[in-house]
Specification:
alpha/beta; Rossmann fold; 9 helices; S-adenosyl-L-methionine
């Protein structure tokens, strides 16, 4: 969902290049060691961070890790940035960028966990290649994830969930966890779940939340 443009968000993004990368050049290597106090910590990245409830909450809960939130919309990115600055979340960096370029922005085998939360389902067949679980995106995730790293995906859209199961399976990925009603599960995954803004809204309406965890199988 596209947010209404907020001039203050664009201004904030421009004023804080130390905290957010705004449309970085794919030909220029990003020095992540300078952007984090300790880049040797485990690294998690969320693609499509929305207003940031998930990634900011997780970063506060886990100071022993580093986090990167990637969001295409400047207004949404500005909202996350405001939270980061107001709450002093030092282990979180942001990118206002296209996820299609993720493999250019991060070192190979540097990410421990990659989150895809409530991604645009792009329901029309002609838009299949835009879905964040399409095989071309999986190619990129495989490059940046560590061999022992994994992907965590949540959605309220059954069509996208079923598509993603097939896409990841055809890619040869290994499923570690699959749920068709996360909020009514009684397991460790459900217990540690951190909600996104959309997730909270959909769950309140009684919609089931679909979830999967999967990893790439080394050749």
């Amino acid at each position: 969902m596209r947010l209404r443009n907020k001039p203050w968000a664009q201004k904030l993004v421009k004023e804080h290049p130390e905290a957010i990368l705004n449309e970085p050049n794919i030909d220029e290597k990003i020095n992540w060691e300078e952007r984090f106090a300790d880049f040797s910590k485990p690294l998690a990245i969320e693609i499509g961070s929305g207003k940031g409830q998930f990634i900011t909450t997780l970063a506060k809960q886990h100071p022993e890790m580093n986090f990167i939130g990637v969001e295409l919309q400047t207004t949404a990115a500005g909202m996350i940035l405001r939270t980061k600055l107001e709450e002093g979340i030092d282990n979180l960096q942001l990118m206002c960028a296209d996820a299609a370029n993720i493999a250019y922005y991060l070192p190979e085998n540097s990410v421990d966990v990659l989150y895809l939360n409530f991604s645009d389902p792009w329901p029309k067949t002609r838009h299949e290649k835009r879905r964040l679980t399409y095989k071309s995106f999986l190619d990129k995730y495989r490059k940046v994830l560590k061999p022992e790293g994994h992907l965590e995906f949540k959605t309220d859209n059954r069509g996208l969930f079923e598509y993603s199961l097939v896409s990841l399976n055809n890619y040869g990925m290994k499923f570690e966890h699959v749920s068709v009603d996360l909020h009514h599960d009684e397991d460790e995954i459900a217990a540690r779940n951190v909600e996104t803004e959309y997730e909270h809204k959909f769950a309140e309406k009684g919609n089931p939340i679909y979830c999967l965890h999967a990893s790439f199988v080394e050749e």
